[in-house]
Amino acid sequence: MSTSMLPAHDPALEFLDHRTPIDRARGLLHRYPALSPAIVLVVSVIVFGFLNDRFWAPGNLSLITQQVAVVGTLAVAQTLVILTAGIDLSVGSAMVLASMVIAQVTSAAGVPAVPALMIGLVVGLATGGLNGLLVTRLKLPPFIATLGTLNIFLAITLLYSRGATVRGAEMPSLMTWTGTTFPVFGVRISTGVLLMLGAYLLVALVLSRTAWGTHVYAVGDDKDAARLSGISVNRVLLSVYLSAGAILALAAWIQIGRSNAASPNVGVDLNLDSITAVVIGGTSLFGGRGTVWGTLLGALIVGVFRNGLSLAGLDVLYQTLAVGVLVIIAVSLDQWIRKVRK
Amino acid sequence: MTTIDATTQTDRPGGPATTPILEAHGLVKTFGRVVGLDGVDLELYRGEVLAIIGDNGAGKSTLIKCLTGAEIPDRGGILLDGKPVHFKRPQDARTAGIETVYQTLAVAPSLDVASNLFLGREVRRKGVLGSVFRMTDRAGMRERARRELRELGISTLQDVTVPVENLSGGQRQAVAVARAAAFGSKVVVLDEPTAALGVRESGQVLELVRTLRDKGVPVIIISHNMPQVFEVADRIHIQRLGKRVATITPKSHTMTEAVAIMTGAAEA
């Protein structure tokens, strides 16, 4: 009796399993969401290399990684939020707030480097905590909650800094340490890039190897199912926004090193750019599907396109155009992939 | 009604001396002026499948919600293994050993079969990796998932790394039932488990219900489908207007009689 349940060789099922190659490709992309961005990255690196041989120069590759470091780190935070079927429009402005606080307390108030970074972490956690409370307690849609906090953080940043930039030289050297570079096989890698990769590795491990990671996916997949399975959905959501806050504080530090300054006017694009990286990286805006490695590929794709198009001699507006097209293609692909055996 | 108790006494398995594994008496639940439950009794014995039938609004769902902690009854008591229990939320009932498979399948589609089986009760690795780094024992959970599915006779689900969304409706339901049954639960409650399934897949789920019963896990099943109820149930609890009007067996009554009692066209 027991083996007759769901027969292994059902002729009807085998008939239905005669899928076309396109179906198989879709199944594969569905199972490995990072596959399509990986293909796009490899192809674009090759194509841009042929368009301009300076593209492959070690100095240029190094530049791309450094340009990607800040948005790449923010995109880790963004991935966590989007995996829960949320969105964080405020990561960029929260990061700028954290970087301005770090810069001000070290330059004006004379706080030493390490305590200043801790203060930056607290600011990051506070912004993430506020978003998390708005989403879990007031039950606001994440889009609306973070649209509000985006403006709030932006205004607080400008009020607090009085619109003034703090130069790297006014801060302790640890603040700009993230901008220092060292050679790896002829390519100069910045400390900030390493910290970014560390964030990816840590979050990837936590997502794939801990119960919390599983719960993040489950909450994004189906909140009710997660709740009925005994998962405290609000606790998971709050912890996700708090984690995002901690990661954006790291991004703030990398930003100070990268631009050798803390400026209140840099981060507004980063709110949306981090979402762009996540989406191009194959993470579904509907939650529950995607990986941080896909996001890293997505961030690199954006960096490679901007750099490659600029080396090919195209106007900066074409870069923006290309990124826009990429986003639409990526989301369309996601819609198509998600239709697998519904 | 005295006739009910008479049938209950004679038909219950294991003889009159057995105490029910799950027992409810005098459950009352009102929603404002609407009376959901009006003093319901229920007994579930070891090794039986108890079906609950009733028209819409008869109180089936409210009864089940009270038994599984999703609602708190205004009055009345619930005994599990002879001891009074007071569930404040579904997790309490789950911890006590009452597992529920909801009509809306409580599975996470993008997670694989093993992750779904262990969702909300993941097993950590031994030693420092588990206690400090909180790593889950993926290999161990997959192995255990395979074993549980094999024991339940679900042979085509041996690949526990497949995302649940790639499974057929019947297989998904099997995963949900397996999760309810897998962790030494005392009682499994199935709410309309075949409502969304075709004939063949319904048959598979009913087979699974019988397997569970044969393993000694008592099952409460809510269904609108009379042929299925009569096929799988040992006893049938009939709910009408917030009360239990009868407990019958597939042998003592025909389907037509059961429907007549359910709709009030006949006395029990």
The rough form of chain B would be described as globular
| Unreliable parts of chain A | 1-12
**Rough shape of chain A?**
globular
Widest sheet: strand ordering of chain A? 1-4
Alpha carbon gyration radius of chain B: 19 Å
Report the oligomer: heterodimer
Number of strands of chain B: 10
In short:
Chain A is mainly α. Chain A has 15 helices and four strands. In chain A, the strands form two sheets. Chain A has a two-stranded antiparallel ribbon with strand order 1-4. In chain A, strands 2-3 form a two-stranded antiparallel ribbon.
Describe the structure.
The complex is a heterodimer of chains A (342) and B (268). By secondary structure, chain A is mainly alpha-helical. Chain A contains 15 helices and four strands. In chain A, the strands form two sheets. A two-stranded antiparallel sheet of chain A has the order 1-4. Chain A has a two-stranded antiparallel sheet with strand order 2-3. The longest helix of chain A is centred in the last third of the chain and has 27 residues. In chain B, α7 packs parallel to α8.
